[in-house]
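Name: GerAB/ArcD/ProY family transporter
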Amino acid sequence: MSKYALFIGFFLFHINLSAFTYPKYALRSTSSGFWEPVLFSYLIEGLFLYLLLKGLFTFSKEDLIDIFKEMMGKWLARLLLLPFAAYLFIHLTLIPRYHSEMLVISFLPRFPLWSVMLLWGLVFYSASKGPLTFLRASMLFSIVIIPLILFSIASSIQNWNYHYVFPLVNMKMDFLSNGDYYSGMISFLPFLFLGMIPVGNFPALQKSRYMVWTYACLLPFHLLSIYNPILTFGQKAASKLQYPMLAVMDSVDIAWLMFDRLTLFYVVASLMGSFLYTSLAAWMFVKLIQKLYVPLNSRWITGLLMIAVLVCGLLIPNLDWLQNLERFLSAIYLYCMIAIPATVFILSKFGRRSPA
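Structure predicted for GerAB/ArcD/ProY family transporter:
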C-alpha cells in the first residue's frame, strides 16, 4: 500500500463532510464573517490532531482502546469511550439518512425512503474488510471524487455575486453562542480514526510535513463549501437550505454538458466519499464494542449494528426533528474532539513506552 494512502483517506473523509454536512450548520451559526467559525473549528481540530498524534507516537503499536485499557483499566476505559461509541453510532445513523433523503429529493422521488436506505447495507459489508481496504479504496476513489468536486465548484463560479461576501468581519463572534456551530463539529471529527489504527504501521506519519500539507489543503475546501452557497444565494436564503451545496449545483446551467444537471456529479462524489468514511466508522464501532463491551464475533455485532442503524434511521420523522435533536448531540461531538485526544496525550506523559 502506498505511504500516501493514509493522507489521501484523511483528506477525502474531511472534504466529504465539509462539502455535504458542514455548510448548513455554519450558515445558521452566524450572519456575517463566515470564515471565522470555519477557521476557529479548523484550528481547534488542528490542535487536538497534534495532541492525538503526539500521544499515539508514544504507543506506536497500540490503538486508543488498548491505551485506555492498559493505562486506566477496562471499566474506566468503557466509561470514557462510551461517548465515542455514541458518536460513531450517531454518524452511522445520520449520514445514511441525510444522503438517502438527498437522493429521494434529487433523483428518486418515486422511491420510498426505506428502499434507498437499504443500499447503505453495503457499508456494513465493507466494514468487515478492515481499514487497509478503505485506505486503498480512497486512493482509487480520489481519482474520481476530487476532480468531480473541483469541477462542480468551478462550474458554480458563474453564478457568484461577490457583493454577498460582505461584511467580512463579525467582531461579536456570536457563532460561539449558537448551537448550530457546535452541531457542525461532527464534520471535524474524522481525524479520530487515526486513534483506531496503530500508528507504528504507518511510518509516513512520523514525517510531520505530510500531515501538515494534507491538513493545510483542507482549509480552502472548508471555506469554499461555506462561501459557495453564500455567493450564489446570499446569507439569508442560503441559511434556510437543508442542502446548500446541492442547491448551488442545481442552479448551474452548462449548455455543453452531456448531463442535464451538474447535481449528478456532486451527488456521485458525495456518495462515494460518504460510503468510504461510513464504512470506516462502522469498522471502528464494531472494533470498539468487541474490545470493550460485548466480546461477540464481529459478524454478529456488524449484523445487529446494521439492523439498529436502519431502524433508527427510518424512525426519524423528519429533518426538522433531527435538527432539534442535534443540538443535544453537540456535547458528544465536543467531548470526542477534546477529551479523547487530550487523554491520550496526558497518558503518554505518564506512561511512556520504549520505542518498538
